[in-house]
Amino acid sequence: MSKFYFHNVRIDMFKMKCSKLFCVLISLVWLAMSPHIVIAAEIKIATGSKSGVYYPVGQAVSQLLKAKDIHIGVISTAGSEQNVDMLLQGAADLAIVQSDVLYMMSQAKSDESYFKYKDPVKTLRGLAALFPEYTQILVRADSDITGILQLVDKQLYVGKVGSGTYKNATDILSSFGIEKNDYMPYAYDISEKGAVEFLLDGKLDAVFDTSGELKVNDPEFRDKLRMVSLSKEAQERIKKDHPYTSFKQVKDYEGREYGVMFSRALLIAGPEGADVEISRGTIVKLIETLIDNLEIEIQRTDKNIEIFTTGNLIARGITINLHPAAKEYYQEKGVLLNISALQLTALFLFLMLLLALLSYLGVNWKWSIWLRFWGQNRFGTGWSRTVRIWNILVGNAFSITLWVSSFVLLLAVIAILSWEDQYAFTHDVHNRFADLHLGELLTWLITFAATGFSQDLFPHSLFGKIAATVIPIIGLGGVIFVFIYSNLKRNERTDKEARGIHVPRLKDHVIICGWNDRVPALIREITTTNRWVKGRKVIVLSEHEQEKPLESFGFIPGSAFFCRGISSDYDKLKEVNLKDAYCAVIVADYHKVQRGNLRGLYTAVALRKTRQKKESRQEKEFKIIAELHYDFNEDRFRYAGVTKLIPLMRVSSSVIGHACMNPGISDLLVRILSFNAPQIALLVGAAEDKNILQAVKDKTFNEAMKRLRKQDILLLAVHRALGKDIGHAETELDFRNPSPYLLNPSAQEDSEYRISEQDDLLIIKSNMAGTSSEQAWSMELGRNLLEQPKTRVYNVANEHLLIIGRDEEIRNVVSTVKNLAQGVISISIDADEKAKITMSERSGVSYLSEELPDFSLEHLESFVCQHKSIFAEVTRAVILEVSPVDSNTEQEDVIYQDDAELSYAMVLLDLYRKLFKKNLHVVAEMRADVNLHLYHDIGIAQPIPINRLIELILARMVFRCLSRQTVVR
């Protein structure tokens, strides 16, 4: 039975063992398969030599965290460089490293003799600053060494290669020009404590030791050692070569002060994605333990280390990026000041302030004008809306004041936080400002600046006190003063400028001498910058009777100014700064038209003589452009030094004469001269654009035209530089041989002329972004066809014209069309309102000639009815300027200038409907653009905007003044 019993017992024991083994296997399999179970790994911390300071500090940290179930293994190393190496290789998870050494590695300033890493070490992450470290230069108490230069040819201990001590020692020595061969380094591997003992035994002359404890305060060496103090001059010399270094004054046990190099011992973690990634909870427990318990634990050792015990100190002086968990903890506790965000905000405010000033002051700067034009072309109405919003934000004095105030206040906050932070660090006190939010800081600062009430909170540092008092007071007070003063002065200055009492000192501007109804539009053309031409500022010098003549036109602010006075007054010409002007335009106003246009002639003489006093031989001739009212003064104006003349009568009559036979000519001229048209005509030098020069240089007209077409440029004419002595025909506006222009070389003898880089080119280019010249031309043609779907094609040879106008102008028009039209009836009205009516045919035969005194609309009606058979053949009526010349034109409202022409048109249209049952095609001269719709509504098929054409011609002459004297004919 006993055998049976024992046999059963064995079986039961075997079953129990099998079941236990099965359970163990199942548990292991379950653990391996479970994703939620993590086996805690030991965290390894790299420290330093066992005789140094890092190793016992690492042991103290390990003991403290062991009580919180966090296991840390302490590794003894050679020092900071090896610790970094171990972190990068994954051999350690934490390390204690000297702050200046780590900084050099992170900034890629490592020297071959110090570190093996040649690229910046950026992946390590800071956790905490543990304690200060002092680079001590130790000598025996009886040594005569008192300065760095006395270490030459001495036996020195400079630390182990790769340690922080070695780096600090070589930095100090090299700053004084002491290299390795200038002293005798101790070649054997000993600890810092061993080196001190060798020093006391006389085997060494000096020892470099970077440590958290001062050896001169160690009871073992207290009376035996002395430190070599670094003077202010020595510190500056070291810092000049090594800007990352810091210095501090320390005291020994007897109160003697020494200047030493200062750094911090930092606790850092390895790179992200290391084998053992330390959790946020572990890092938080680690930092809290360091703050609360490390100082007490260190007291249990024999090390006399000054441990950082407050959050403000433990988070300072970390020379690499903080670990995200540590940074979050410090910010949550209010330990870490987020000054970077404030600095970015200050930078943003500064940029906004700069943009506000540029927007306010740089309205007419080249880049500003280009940006406005580009945005308008690119984004259209959306850009205009954006510009309005932008002007509200930054484009006025109030917004500038707001940005200045914000920037100054934030700058004061940053200064207070920075200096108080530095003060708290150096004096080991709490920075109360770090506990406040930005809103609370701004509220405190504004309250203090306005009332002087500090709310029991005031900076301790000198610069913090200055920032808290001086900056806000100067900033706020100065801003308020500048805002009020600038507005008062600006309003006063603006009022004086509007009344012509004060004229700003301009350069490269245009002076308009005189005033007529063309001047406002001319100012707009000159001051508006677009894709091809740069706008210029304008000063109008006139005897205008209105108090503020420019105020009602709404010109671009700061673009047009008024000076009250006579344009031939030499003192007034100096006042408008003629010597620095770009050019001058003499317009035919009332005062200049009187007495044969002599006042305009006197103005030209005064302009030229005043400029000649200032011009040197090297300077280009000053450009003077003048409107010529009376042709008999042409030679006088030329002799007076006028660069370009616009004979108003000839331009007007020639354009109208051609427009009579070609209904589209006037519209074409306006569009081709306008800078806001889809295509634009430009007179440019061949050498002004390198792409154009490559296409045309040494090429014939036809070759150049084909090559320019590839650049979306249409070549119209070439102005030959070699043709200076070639003039225009004396009797026609048309260009004829001899002429410096090549218009149609295939029909000229010089069709093989080769274009040189001195020639000028008349071209048409697209004035719309992304649109070729041909596309722009087609778009405009298509628009015209849509606007005029019933356009008629006229047979010039069958046209019978009725022309009504005043003396000279009607003669010029008749001479232009008489050889083209089948017949011409002209009604010429003289100054005494006498009318001469003439009927002539293309053959030159005149078969009707009558004179009527006191001609009026009633006479016109009766005369047409009397000669119905003759007037029935009229296909087109041309109405020139028929209103009497008003000697006070500049005072009348512009809109009424075309009343007489409109009246004649209405009478003629009505007569032809009643008498001949047909709609007469009426061509009428129009001086006021505002009457365009009225012209069309009355039934005038072809308004001719003469004033507009003259304005555009004047503007073109301003933008492109040629150096040679020419006269528009």
TrEMBL record:
Entry keyword set: Membrane, Receptor, Transmembrane, Transmembrane helix
Residues spanning the membrane: 341-363, 393-416, 466-486
Record keyword Transmembrane helix present: yes
Keyword tRNA-binding part of the UniProt annotation: no
Coiled coil: none
Protein name as annotated: TRAP transporter solute receptor, TAXI family
Protein's organism: Candidatus Kentrum sp. LPFa
